């Protein structure tokens, strides 16, 4: 099972969401920034690396907000861990995504998120998390 980490980057009560490019698997779906954990890599270290690669930031990885397991229709299974990020150095720069946006938590369900993120998005929007 593949391990994936993602950041819930919060600033001024808004959350950063990112849209995949047309060339990626599940094109143009929205997600939280992050990515695959490499072999023998610590989860927080992996997220720090991914945020630097995707957004050009040096993030302080906070507490784990959620951990879920999801299996897609094609059989791909993953363990997904979400961490809160409140502090980072450098300005956010879109290095790989089609689009990045700061949105209010109540707006989250209006975006077409990856299937694995949908339940978490509903919980954040309802005020159950964060």
Question: Would you give an account of this structure?
Answer:
With 130 residues, the protein is α+β, with helices and mostly antiparallel strands. 16% of the residues lie in helices and 38% in strands. Strand 1 (2-11) and strand 2 (14-19) form a beta hairpin. The radius of gyration is 14 Å and the shape is globular. The model has no long low-confidence stretch (mean pLDDT 97).
CATH architectural group: Alpha-Beta Complex
Major β-sheet, in short?
A: 7 strands, mixed
What is the subunit organization of this protein?
single chain
Secondary-structure element sequence?
EEEEHEEEEEH
Shape: globular
> Percent range for helical residues?
10-25%
Distance N to C terminus: 27 Å
What Rg is obtained from the alpha carbons, in whole angstroms?
14 Å
Average of pLDDT? 97
Query: Which percent range describes the beta-strand content?
Result: 35-45%
Number of helices: 2
Estimate nothing, just give the exact number of structural domains.
1
């Amino acid at each position: 099972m593949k391990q994936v980490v993602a950041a819930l980057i919060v600033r001024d009560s808004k959350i950063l969401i990112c849209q995949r490019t047309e060339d990626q698997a599940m094109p143009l779906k929205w997600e939280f920034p992050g990515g695959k954990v490499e072999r023998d890599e610590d989860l927080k270290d992996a997220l720090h690396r991914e945020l630097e690669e995707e957004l050009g930031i040096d993030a302080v990885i906070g507490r784990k907000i959620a951990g879920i397991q999801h299996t897609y229709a094609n059989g791909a299974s993953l363990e997904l861990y979400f961490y809160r990020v409140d502090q980072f150095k450098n300005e956010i720069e879109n290095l790989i995504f089609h689009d990045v946006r700061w949105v209010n938590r109540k707006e989250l369900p209006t975006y077409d998120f990856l299937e694995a993120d949908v339940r978490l998005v509903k919980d954040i929007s309802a005020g159950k998390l964060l």
